[in-house]
Each structure stands twice: as structure tokens, then as C-alpha cells.
Amino acid sequence: MKVNKNSDEMERKELNLRKQDTAMKRLAERQALNVFYPTNLPYLTMQRIYGEKAKSAKQTRWIEGIAVGLMGVMSVIVIFVFCGEAMNKMLDFFVMSFSTYSMDMSSLSILKYALLTFGYVFFVSLNALLNHHFGKKE
Amino acid sequence: MIQVNEKRLIDRILSGHTEDYGYFLERYGREVFTVVVRLVMQQEDAEEITQDVFVKAFNHLSSFGGHSSLSTWLCRIAYNEAINFIRKKRKDLINMNDNEQLLDMVSEEMVDEALSTEKENQLAYLEKAINRLSPEERMLVTSFYFEERSFKEIAYIMGFKEKELANAVNLLTTRLSRIRKKLYVLIKQIEHESE
Predict the structure, then answer these.
(1) Does any domain span residue A111?
(2) B189 touches chain A (CB under 8 A)
């Protein structure tokens, strides 16, 4: 109750002060006419907001790209370090069973790594494609 | 305090409908611009700061709690942006020492008389006197008299926290009384200069 009383009193004081200083009221009316508000300001501001949003989206895409690249490199390293032996055997079997020509060992090795890279690129691309079409959009 | 349709609009903007923000620009742009131009006193600077205010408000829209009206919240951002701008560009305008003894000599009656004048030349002096106030003082005067904001609202705009508002109101009342005296002194100075 005391708070209300104080607040009422304050409001009354404010009103009295405004009423009493008539010169300020006249000046306020005059100043309101003097302020030149540029009508294109909302449009320009919206353009700036769109621009900043696009810039931030582009930045996010770059960061995502770099992160995907780094993850890719790390995945390749992990695959080669931890599954190298098993994959070598598997690929040896695969290459041998399909090659009807006589190939030297270095060509076979290149073929193995080419197949491995192709497989990896295929899965990364598939992931990116699915993400692009079905992933959460902002 | 916040209007229901505005709350809905804010939610829509936050969910990705950026174009809806144009409504707030149309509705509050002039008000924010007026606050800024009165503080910085330069048309071009005020235009740029007003844009900054709305961009900043857009980026922090999720933090708007609805405890005050959106226009007051925007004016608070505008006040901060304008004061920061002035601090960076024109340090001289901030530190203006008042002659306390001189102000003490001015009676309330003298101030009342000066601020209730109807004469055109006195009004022109008063306008010049307001322009000579520091940005914070000018903000208080223009918000109170020209925009008819309450002391509580002005305190919020000037950056006082919710808990401090009651004390801030008393502080602003005292400060306004001091500024009225200062305006009287400045009017007399300007009168003297123009003679």
C-alpha cells in the first residue's frame, strides 16, 4: 500500500513538473517537427540484417566444411592405423579374385588405395547428400 | 507489459521469419532515431547508430524478457549505443563540471519563471541551453519533457537494474532539479553572449 501511495505521489510530482514547465512543452512540440527521420532507414536496416545473416551463414558453412575436412583426414588416419592390416587382407582377396591380368605388386597396392579412397569418398558424399536433403535446416 | 501480438511476432522472428522484423522497424524506428539524434546531435551519426541499435536488438532478441515494453528496451539499447559512440568520438562532451556554488545560488522560483516562459527568444535560448547540456542530462530532460516518460522508465533506459529502480527514481528527481537550475544558468549565459 505504501508503495502505491509513493508511486502515486511520484506520478503527481512528475505531472506537476511537466505542467509547470510550459516552455518545455512548447519546445517539445517545436522539436518534434524539427527531427528529420529518413524514411528509407527501416529498408536499409533490413538490408543490413539480411546481409549480416547471410555472412554469418556463409561463415558457418566454411567452419562446417573445415570441420568435415578435418574429420575426413582423421578418419582416414584412424582407418589406416587401426584397420590397415585387416583391410589389406580383405582388399588382397578382392583384388586377386577379380584380376585376370598379371599385375606387379606396386600396381596392386595403388589399386587397393584407389579402391579404399573411392569407398571413402562415396560414403562422405552420400552423407553430405543426405544431410543436404534431409538434415535440419535453419 | 509486452503486447501479445508483439510477443507472437518475436517468436516468429526467432523461428526464422526475419522479414517480420520490419514491423518493429516501422513502428519504433522514429522513436529510437529521435532518442539517438537528441543525444549525438548529428543526423548522419544518428542514422548509423539507429541501424546499429536495430541490428543489435535483432541479434539479442532472444534475451528480451518482456519485463518492459519493447520500445523501452529498444530505447535502452539506443541510449547505450549513443553514449558509447559519444565516449569514443567526443570525450569533451562527457566531462562537464558544474559550478556547484553557482547552482546553489539559483532559487526554484527563478527556474520556474525561466521554464514557464512563452516568449519566442527565451524559447530559443532554452533550446540552445538544452543543447549545451551533457548527453546524459539532455537524455533526462528530453525523455522527461518531450517524450513524457516516467522516471522509472528513464532509469531503466539509462541502465539501472530492476532492483535499483526505486533509488534511481529519487536520484533522477534530484538530478532533474539540478539540471533545471543548470538550464537557468545556461540561459543567462546565452543571453549575455547574444547581447
Answers:
(1) yes
(2) no
Which of A88-102, B37-51, B108-122 comes out lowest in average pLDDT?
A88-102
Scored b (16 or more CB within 10 A) or e, A45-84 reads bbeebeeeeeeeeeeeeeeeeeeeeeeeeeeeeeeeeeee
Q: Tell whether A77 and A45 lie within a shared domain.
A: yes
In a shared domain, residues A90 and A134: yes
Please give the residue range of the domain that contains residue A70.
39-81
Query: Least CB-CB distance to A23: which of B29, B43, B117?
Result: B117
pTM given for the model? 0.71
B54/A49 CB distance under 8 A: yes
pLDDT in tens, B14-37: 988 999 999 999 999 999 999 999
Pairwise CA distance, residues A45 & A38, whole Å: 12
Alpha-carbon distances of B25 from A128, B71, B146, rounded to whole Å? 38, 11, 21
Q: Residue B102: give the domain boundaries.
A: 96-194
Provide the grid cell at A25: 512543452
A130 CB within 8 Å of a chain B CB? no
Whether B42 contacts chain A with CB within 8 A: no
At A105, the pLDDT band (50, 70, 90 cuts) reads: low
What is residue B116's three-state secondary structure?
A: coil
* Residue B75 to residue B135: CA distance in whole angstroms: 14
Q: Closest-CA residue in chain A for B41?
A: A35
Q: Which of B92, B124, B159 is the last residue of a domain?
A: B92
Task: Please tell me whether the interface predicted TM-score (ipTM) of this complex is above 0.85.
Answer: no
